Amino acid sequence: MKPVALTTTKPGFEPQLREELNKIPIKKKILWTPFRGILIVLSSNPYDFLEVVKENKSNLKFLFRLIPLEIECQTDIDEIKKAVLSLINEKKEKLKNKSFVVRCNRRGSHKFTSEDIERVIGRYILDNFKDLNLKVDLKNWDFKINIEILQNKSYISIFYNNFNEFVIEENIRNLKNLKRYVERPLNRSERKMQELMEKFPFIFENLNCVVDIGSAPGGWAKMLSKKAKKVYAIDTGELKVKAKNIIHIKKRAEDVDFEKDIDEEIDLITNDTNLYPDESIFLTLKFAKYLKSGGYIIHTLKARNLETKKEDLNQVLKILDQYKNIELFKIINLKANTKNELTLILKKL
Ligand SMILES: C[S@@+](CC[C@H](N)C(=O)[O-])C[C@H]1O[C@@H](n2cnc3c(N)ncnc32)[C@H](O)[C@@H]1O
User: Fold this and answer.
1) d(CA 190, ligand 1 centre) in Å
2) What positions belong to coiled-coil segments (predicted)?
3) Residues 58, 117 within the same domain
4) Are residues 193 and 318 in the same domain?
């Protein structure tokens, strides 16, 4: 399978779009992206996927736009040129004597603008396909070279006739005011917690006091506050959630004075800080002293990078090994974890 479509929805409604797309009858995989409102679909080819989506339009209320993708490459001007070259060569016969436009939608931070890419690629096509007798026409083009950039990945397509961006205006209109009526959907952190709550409901039963380390903006704290009497949310950052039972300790976890700031037995510790693996586990262990016996710890291990993931896990397990009253209950790779993350569930004996 390869990337065949970039799909968009209202930011925050990605889980709903994913659920709908999962139901349409074609083999596919839906990937989250770091960009709000955008999911990438993997399947066998963009043409069939586009057709199936059109046929199932009435079941896709959260889909705003589908942009078919033909070739994926690194976000590098020479790589993009190579991809454009191979696509045009593939479709050469259809493109002779036609007018074209290059359009680029860029997401992420780069040294160049979308217009820079459009200009460079337009020039490149004119210079390299003189035999096709092409001309640029920004308005009444016959085909469009479409370039979607998502940080370090770029996706190139040639839109021609019916193979084009598919927009459902009706959905855009209908969803405009939706947030008035439904609770704001989950961000990625919340999805991690939701998955944990679904898989291990017993961890979240009868909770009095939860300590959430590295809590901002507050996705976990929000979900935990529905299960526990009190959530101590430790973070120097601002919380974007409010609940009567969330107590924001606006400090680094290292600086929390347990007796002064909390001073009650903890039922559950959660830690999602973006610190180095050893620093983060030591913070968890600082609070584990005050965890009740039989209480659980949910700890996100964030490896320094993909290559060090195993080494980082081993380092953390070695540290934990020295704490005889803390048992490793499970290591789990949650769907909403990034590639560098693993979730450790620990239990105090
Ligand atoms: C990925 S975010 C946590 C997201 C959170 N679980 C949620 O659901 O919204 C990581 C947080 O860890 C916090 N953090 C990093 N180092 C910290 C420390 N030493 N003490 C407390 N919080 C820390 C950062 O400020 C950041 O807000």
Assistant:
1) 13
2) none
3) no
4) yes
